Amino acid sequence: MGVYFYGCMTLDGYLADRNHNLNWLHQTGTIEETSFEQFYQSMDLTIMGRRTFREIERLKDAEELYPTTQNYVFTHTEGLLKKGFMPVCCDVREFVSQFGADKNIWVIGGNTLLAPLLEHDMVDEIILQIAPVLLGGGIPLFAQKEELKRFLLCEVRQYGQFAELHYNRL
Asked: I need a surface site. Which of 10, 51, 95, 100 has the fewest CB within 10 A?
């Protein structure tokens, strides 16, 4: 099993603006300009929080966005309006731990799910794209407890305006 974070942040470390808006990202480039397709093909399931899911819900083709993975949304809401997404209400660490060694899990979105996984050394790889944008405030990507965590830089690529950094857990 591997737990992966794959996503984009601004130069100043934000995943979204104060209103959880991603317009800055959509105005910078598209997934066709990144390693997304190759990455996604290696995933078995996705996990995301309710706020991330809200952004996905707004898309016309949300049901077709992640067609080959099992998709879980951490929420207190029992039903979700989009086909292909299952609600989950439990501890993210326990949820991730229930899957076998043959499953690759993609953490989509921000710090609510990522922080506890990082705090317990459960994130194996971080593939981080940096957009040439400064927001000056917003939702930070990393919000785990203050504790030293080291990763090994394995690869650096450029995709259009995005710099992609690929890290493995030491």
From this structure: 100
